[in-house]
Amino acid sequence: MDATLNVGAHLVSNLAQAVLGNMREVYFPEEGPFARHYYPKHCEFFDATQDYKVLSLFGGNRTGKSFAPCYAIACWISGEYPEWWTGRRFQKPLRVWVVGETGTLVRNNLQRYLIGSKGSEGIGSLFGADEIVHTSWQSKPEGLAERTIIRGKYGDSIIEFKSYDMERRRFASDVADVILLDEEAPAGIFSECLTRTGTTRGIVINAFTALRGVTPLVAMLLPQFAGAEEFDMKAVSRWHEFIGWDDIPEAQLPADERRKMEASYLPSERLARIKGIPSLGSGLVWPISEDDIIVPAFRVPSSWPQLITLDPGWHHGTGAMRWALDQDQGAIYGIADYWKRHETVAMHADVINAWGAWQNIAIDYASGMNIDDGEGVKAKYRAKLKGTVINARKQRVLESHQDVYDMMATGRFFIFDTCRYWLAQFRQYVRNEKGKIQMPNDPNDAKRHHFELMDCSRYAANGIDQFKVMPPEAMRDRARVAPHEGRTGHVEVLDPGYF
């Protein structure tokens, strides 16, 4: 549907070239291979426009994430709605911005969907030639519209075409009723767009494939991807949906084409390009798909050795991970995680002690400003922790990064899906253009965020010899509190005696 729903290519290309009337009635029909019921998530988006101010479509490639908002804009401006429409209805002329990464992309996609190409306006587009009153054109790139006036039921509306490569000041004036941001917008431009729609009680729509990872914008729109609790969407008037290949009919994207496209994608990009779920793109420190390392939590056998890794801190946070080792496969599993900022040693120790007093705790012994500070921190934890505090295996960072990646790539490194703090840090663990670890946009203290749980992963991968088998007395305690051995399904990791 991003390629004009592929309907244009399959069914109506000849009609589109011959008829100057609008093409709105062609899309989302009642029956046929592209019938409306094959696009439930697109229809959910239309419905959500009734109740929310900020709507975000996180879509895979060729899923219609850009076309669906254009269709909604065409309905709003024309004032003509299909019988099935349950979304928002405007009853006035509108000021609309459609914005993309570059002028060329805006011309080739959003503009083509809405008004067609220069010299053939209204052909194969959502607005017909008789609805397009006037269009002014930009000098560069050739054929890019600057603004167009559309005649609708409630008067003449204006669509302005913009791109992110314009200066921010081009977004810092005027007001708008609807703004479509196609592909991920810079955070500053998104903020300006929120402001521009404030007085009009308008709508801001994001439509993009999230290949840059958990950027500040993604973290705001999807807080759960940055390790925060998901908020009440209604309360903040934000809505989102993930649209993947499973949400569109095969008539739009045939199975053989899907297989070829999937094979061509980098593993780290597949979630975003196929399912619409944010990925980390080429800057990923460990370029591996989440699907390859995230597994459902299960009951860990008592015979598997375990280890706790700990990276202490104050401003940047304290992180700890509990690990189990499958000796038959040579694989380690992250089975529980913990992360807190600005808490005392005693508070951290209470959580770690609940994981088992019998375990070794491999600590980053130089977490202070210097080695002496680190030794002091280690002494404080040794006084509070019941397990044996040992030094983490701290190889050179580049070497240990490679060790972890080798284990991930060969099926020897896994994380339980209940470890949300670990997953949030993993999604932000990227390199900048200079090859350095890029610190996340942390409003509390970004410069001191050290990716504690990623460091804990390195310590575990390098410290296989530090894992310890559960002693008999601990096994007896576990037998008294653990569920029956035959239990299956999701595991609640907060039960300290379960693993």
Describe the structure.
This protein has 499 residues and is of the alpha/beta class. The protein has two domains: 267 residues, Rossmann fold, CATH 3.40.50; 191 residues, 2-Layer Sandwich (Nucleotidyltransferase, domain 5), CATH 3.30.420. It has 16 helices and 17 strands. The protein is elongated, with a radius of gyration of 27 Å. The protein starts with 6 loop residues before the first helix and ends in an 18-residue tail after the last helix.
CATH architecture of the largest domain: 3-Layer(aba) Sandwich
- SS element count, helices: 16
Estimated share of beta-strand residues: 15-25%
Strand order of the largest sheet: 5-6-7-2-8-9-1-10
Count of all domains? 2
Structural class: alpha/beta
Compute the average pLDDT. 84
Task: Give descriptors for this structure.
disordered N terminus, 8-stranded mixed sheet, 2 domains, 30% helix, Nucleotidyltransferase, domain 5, Rossmann fold, 7-stranded mixed sheet, disordered C terminus, single chain, alpha/beta, 499 residues
Indicate the topology:
Elements: H1 7-18, H2 40-48, E1 54-59, H3 67-78, E2 95-100, H4 103-114, E3 116-117, E4 120-121, E5 132-137, E6 145-152, E7 155-163, E8 178-182, H5 187-196, E9 203-208, H6 216-221, H7 233-236, E10 238-243, H8 255-264, H9 270-275, H10 290-293, E11 294-295, E12 306-311, E13 318-326, E14 331-340, H11 345-354, E15 360-363, H12 371-384, E16 388-391, H13 397-409, E17 413-416, H14 420-427, H15 452-462, H16 472-481
Parallel strand pairs: 1-9, 1-10, 2-7, 2-8, 8-9, 11-17, 12-15, 14-17, 15-16
Antiparallel strand pairs: 3-4, 5-6, 6-7, 12-13, 13-14
